Amino acid sequence: MAYETLIVEVADHIGLIRLNRPEALNALNMQLLEELADVLVSFSTNDKVRCVIITGSEKAFAAGADIKEMSEKSFTDMFEADYFTGPTETLLRFRKPIIAAVSGYALGGGCELAMMCDFIIASDTAKFGQPEINLGVMGGMGGTQRLTRFVGKSKAMEMNLTGRFMDAAEAERSGLVSRVVPAKDLLDDAKATAAKIAEKSLIAAMAVKEAVNRSYETTLREGVLFERRVFHSLFSSEDQAEGMAAFTEKRAPQFRDR
Ligand code: CO8
């Protein structure tokens, strides 16, 4: 299917989604998010996709939600449409690993979209921020919630209250991104990382994703119990038997996602 706001490729077991609204620095509008959700739904049943990368352009991952689309809306418009909720829920329910590869601006909804992915690899030109306060509003897709869990209250509060941007070095120091790489290497690095994940048992990778995400939703005690049960359950998979046999036989495992 052809998309107007995205460029989508599948190769080497990686589903690559490029946000593509260059005229608006990839600002997120309803069409883009619905197209993104549509791609993810198709990826969830596509055996050729074992890991996903969401990226933007060199200048902007996404400079926020589309201010022009939002500017005329009323409370009832937003409330009745439950603006952005449907597609972002699809992203949050997607079970295969998703990497955000961020270059340039990741602001407002762009920063929030990156934080909804499983981890962020940033280029050295990346700039993160929640500048919605400059528009008389605030983050609405996790800028006050996920950012606080990533970087702690003090930085999250400062960023949300002042709208200042965080550069890539500060984002790495603060735990917002897993790694920073030179801008020219960003996509290659993200693809190499995705390829490494794609080699694993998808059953184990999906279990890891579910368990790490559970740590955000529950207490430590419940989370550790959940982890242990999932760990035990993996002993019913063929991939566990294969992975451990391959280790003892000193050969590479052949995972079959069973
Ligand atoms: N929305 C719409 N258009 C945008 C946006 C945006 N967020 N960002 C940039 N653009 C457009 C500009 O209007 C401009 O278009 P045009 O040429 O037609 O005027 C084009 O992109 C290029 O932008 P600039 O000329 O401004 O480029 P600069 O390099 O000078 O500046 C900046 C780049 C600093 C990124 C600047 O564009 C900027 O400040 N953008 C807005 C950033 C922002 O405020 N983001 C937050 C938006 S609100 C939000 O994200 C809410 C999320 C919560 C939603 C929750 C729903 C439930």
CATH superfamily of the largest domain: 2-enoyl-CoA Hydratase, Chain A, domain 1
As a whole number of angstroms, the C-alpha radius of gyration is 19 Å
Sheet with most strands: 6 strands, mixed
Total beta strand runs: 10
The helix count comes to 12
Strand order across the biggest sheet?
1-2-3-5-7-10
CATH topology of the largest domain: 2-enoyl-CoA Hydratase, Chain A, domain 1
- Give the low-confidence spans: none
The mean pLDDT is 97
Q: Percent helix among the residues?
A: 40-55%
Backbone structural class: alpha/beta
Outline, from the CA principal axes?
globular
In N-to-C order, the SSE pattern is EEHEEHHHEEHEEHHEHEHHHH
Which band does the percent of strand residues land in? 15-25%
- Number of discrete domains: 2
Pfam families: ECH_1
Protein name: enoyl-CoA hydratase
Function: Could possibly oxidize fatty acids using specific components.
EC number: 4.2.1.17
Question: How would you explain this protein's 3D organization?
Answer:
This protein has twelve helices and ten strands. It is of the alpha/beta class and 258 residues long. The chain folds into two domains: 6-198, 2-enoyl-CoA Hydratase, Chain A, domain 1 (Alpha-Beta Complex); 201-249, Lyase 2-enoyl-coa Hydratase, Chain  A, domain 2. The protein has a six-stranded mixed sheet with strand order 1-2-3-5-7-10, with helices on both faces. A four-stranded mixed sheet has the order 4-6-8-9. Strand 1 (6-11) and strand 2 (14-19) form a beta hairpin. Helix 1 packs parallel to helix 4 (85-93). The longest helix has 15 residues, at 30-44. The chain starts with 5 loop residues before the first strand and ends in a 10-residue tail after the last helix. Octanoyl-coenzyme A binds at residues 24-25, 27, 63-68, 83-84, 105, 107-109, 131-132, 135, 139-141. Residues 24-25, 27, 63-68, 83-84, 105, 107-109, 131-132, 135, 139-141 line the site of octanoyl-coenzyme A (CO8). One of its GO terms (biological process) is fatty acid beta-oxidation. Pfam families: ECH_1. Keywords: Fatty acid metabolism, Lipid metabolism, Lyase. It is an enzyme of class 4 (lyase). It comes from Paroceanicella profunda.
